[in-house]
Amino acid sequence: MVLSPSAASEPPATPAGWLLYTHGLAKSYGANEVLRDVTMGLQPGTVVGLLGPNGAGKTTLLNILAGIFPPTRGAVWLEGAWVDFDREPEQRRGLGLILGGRMLIEELRPPEYFAFVAAMYGATGAAAGAYVDDLIRRLRLEAHLDKPIKNLSAGTRKKVEFVAAVLHRPRVLLFDEPFEAIDPPSVLELTEVTRDYIRSSGGAAIVSSHILPYVRPLATEIRLLWNGQLYEKDQLEELLRNRADDAELRVWGAVLEGG
Q: Would you kindly state where each structural domain of the chain is located, as residue ranges?
């Protein structure tokens, strides 16, 4: 059964133990259907590497899960609680977001931005401050704290985004192309810190990219978003058999098989 969150009178049940669960998500803009029947779940410790070509719907899916806009139909649960997209649910505080730099306030210096985000989430006090200081040290941000965010390199900006995404200790991370346009050392640092965070928090993540080597070291599962639909490996194999004449799809199949 597919439910529209804004139309459902009562939220349906969801399986226990899922940090994030979606059922039948779809998003349309007029006649253009960007997402179709996306059903997936994240259990503690799961990191889904969400792959797909540009325009496949990866950013749209993460924006819906982040609550930036509602789906056309379908339902989402966060930590067992059904999301009513007509409200601003408290459970969205359990999300950590990297969404292509859109969360940054570029005129602020990193410490000012961290303080703003911490106040927004109520993550204040000595322990919270010490946690941020430790992240700054691990990501080697000390030399960049006096500069406005707009003057930082792409890799340093991604590190600032990461600190802001996790300083309130969320259990579900939604990272939209966090490794693109940054140097290999920064990719390795962010991968290691993200992996440690998932392990220590008992959380889960979706990390999107169109480049498999960026997400393979971190992901516990790989999914392909193709023409708005989500495919696991066995489903992709069936799709390839049915669409043997699609050259671009065969390339993606070879990429995932090689990974």
A: 20-258
